[in-house]
Design goal:
homodimer, alpha+beta, 4 helices
């Protein structure tokens, strides 16, 4: 069994630029949280870590493995959930209504005899739809928490840390995930 | 992007024996469904495909990749869910009460630039706890459906196709998955 250990930092602007080109990866790059200390901070979004999200609708899972250019920043298993407010829009491929929450529960993984097995949580990241309140970031508020710990928010500058990565997905209401029946 | 195409058959008894030694893999080997046509059939279990299981508690995800000895039989992304009847027992690591259902939603995957991305459904498999009714198979009934289609049940001999693989996990009430907080 080999343990996969990943760095969580975006170390330079070249890598950051690469991440910004990540259209089609199918992830909430809100999971690229924290560590962007070189940008000027704007106000953090006032989101709360939702309870019971593992009882929400499971949208999909993605594993970012060592071969990915995003491994250093986002390596791990990404379990994506959506709350009931957004479920119909997800299935119909329509813009999401206010109060929709999409959540990435980001875990480590190990590779055991050729199988990728889920490990402990690295972070939890959410995007909450409120067209008025978060108009400057596509109608979405963004936040993430280290280890899924509500006392450890990671996003201080949602535009730089989150929205810039979501902008290329404007035609999907800034959401990377889509419905898998 | 490389599409991962897997065979779904267990072609020989050596491979079947290997699967029976699969303790620790963390999967419901009920997903090894169908195609065991060489065994004498006993009565199939009368289970129904549950509706809305993607709103159940998401237990874990596992990806069985090409390097796994189980790839030919079970390659793919395995999303495991549990219904509300079993959620507390899962979290406490206790034997499961009657009416617990564990479900594997088994999907294809593609590898896109080093990331494992969920694809279409291959099959859905369940185990339902009823200590009396299914006493001869550890208190669990087993069934699976090709493509998640309720008209396409796959298990005709639950002992041979399912329970024999689960027997090594007797100390976990015959369940491979365990709780990942």
């Amino acid at each position: 069994m080999s343990s996969v250990s990943t760095g969580d930092r975006i170390r330079n602007s070249a890598q950051w630029a690469r991440i910004k080109r990540s259209a089609g990866l199918g992830l909430l790059s809100a999971a690229v949280v924290g560590s962007i200390t070189s940008f000027a901070a704007e106000s953090a979004h006032d989101l709360k870590l939702p309870a019971s999200f593992r009882n929400w609708y499971h949208v999909n899972t993605m594993v970012i493995d060592k071969g990915s250019p995003f491994f250093e920043a986002m390596g791990g298993m990404h379990n994506v959930y959506i709350n009931s407010a957004g479920e119909t829009a997800l299935k119909k491929g329509e813009p999401y209504p206010d109060k929709t929450v999409l959540l990435v529960d980001w875990h480590e993984f190990t590779i055991s005899d050729g199988s990728y097995v889920e490990g402990p949580r690295k972070a939890t990241a959410v995007m909450l739809k409120d067209k008025k309140k978060y108009a400057s970031t596509g109608g979405w508020g963004f936040q993430g928490w280290a280890g899924g710990d509500p006392t450890k928010p990671l996003v201080t500058d949602p535009t730089k840390q989150c929205f810039e990565c979501h902008q290329p997905k404007k035609d999907q209401d800034y959401v990377y995930s889509s419905y898998i029946p």
